[in-house]
Amino acid sequence: MTGPAPDDGTPKRGRGRSVRLRQDLAASLVVFLVALPLCVGVAVASGVPAELGLVTGIVGGLVAGLLPGSSLQVSGPAAGLTVLVLEAVRAYGLPALGVIVLATGLVQLAMGALRLGRYFRAISVAVVEGMLAGIGLVLIAGQLYSVAGAPAPASGLGKLAGLPGLVADTAGSPAATASAALGAGTVAVLVLWNRLPGKARTVPAALGAVALATLVTFAFGLPVATVEVRGLLDSIRPPDLEAFGGLASAGLLGTVLAFVLIASAESLFSAAAVDRMHDGPRTQYDKELMAQGAGNAVSGLLGSLPMTAVIVRSAANVRAGARTKASRVLHGVWLLLFAALLPGVLAYIPLPALAAVLVHAGWKLIPLRQIAALWREHRGEALVLAITAVSIVAVSMFEGVLIGLALAIVKTAWESSHLKLEVTDKGAGPVQAYLSGNATFLRLPKILDSLEALPKDRPVELDLSGLHHLDHACRTALETWAERHSASGVEPVRLMSP
Length: 498
Fold this sequence. Notes:
- This protein starts with 16 loop residues before the first helix and ends with a strand.
- It has helices spanning 17-45, 50-62, 82-92, 94-113, 125-147, 156-161, 163-171, 174-192, 205-220, 232-235, 241-244, 250-275, 285-301, 311-319, 326-341, 351-365, 368-377, 379-394, 397-416, 444-452, 472-486, and strands at residues 75-76, 308-309, 419-424, 431-439, 460-470, 494-496.
- It has 21 helices and six strands.
- Helix 8 packs antiparallel against helix 9 and helix 17 crosses helix 18.
- This is Sulfate transporter.
């Protein structure tokens, strides 16, 4: 899809500033309506006050939105970090969350200043998609409990294992059944929204589904939980000095690294996707990483959620006809006005509806089409994706991503060490052996087995000129083999070096 190109500041004939402002204003309202239920839902699912989701959305608009980097990308709290935030809050407490997010932002700022943003494009796509799939699975499993109004187990495997019992418990409780029915209806509305007439689809699907669920809840007096409202100022709690002491913990530092890796990768991959949707200036990856870092630093100082660029909001921004970064800044303004003037509206939103929105978002994180395509064309990449996702569910987010990265590196090293041995034996004279490709320690067993199978009573000419790479371990092994073969009484092995 190709949308309108964002304005780069160059005067264009026939387009006035007022026209661009009207387009950005309209787009900002659309993005605001898309962002509102997601900000609240992500906060509730992360185990923090609902208002903190709005705070992160506001900072994403007013801070990250004003900075250079990506023209039309919109930042805020993301479903992809929900699982990690929930784990962090459970392990270290809500006061430590601000420290973690602040440290994440400072690391991102440093990485952008060191021009490391572009290197995130080198991360294996299979690892990133596996990460998203794992997050999606854990998110779905966890939010199904919220849909039924039940507490969720802490571990990913525990969530999955407890689903049969959840179904049985829900069927036996009228309140849980009503909650689950409301959640299921919300998912159905989300799935079927695109089939509505064009005018109805001008309302974002998530907002429409949550609004309908809210109306049904009060029209029928359903016994379901609603959002707890604390007030914007009461929810903002900057980290105190005692909370910073947690930075001495290896576990908390590991959580910071996980936040940095996942938030940065998700933001920069989103930027690449948004760039494909319009014809304007391309993303400046290092500046975009610094913009995300600045936003996370401010969010951390406010004790709020981490932010990333969010593809759903960004795509809505482009499709709504945004021209400049004013649209994403204005969406932050609308979130601020809502949080300041209408916070009580949140208290009417049923929690099962928000959980259903995140179940739907989690399903969309699982790249089913990409998995099928990878399995047909690159089964090694498909295995990396699957193992990454399973590791995240079975162990944790951080360890799962590290396992995926390690597998991707090992796979690449194995494939890059392709080696071919051609042997020519004319029956008389020396046996000629020609090695080509990359000789690394990973291929040592194959190299030595092939060479030791050569006739021991014949001279050998070993031609290494076809090797692109010969590491120290292989060179030493080849020289040792040549000495042993020469000691058997035949002419010394003739080595032709690369």
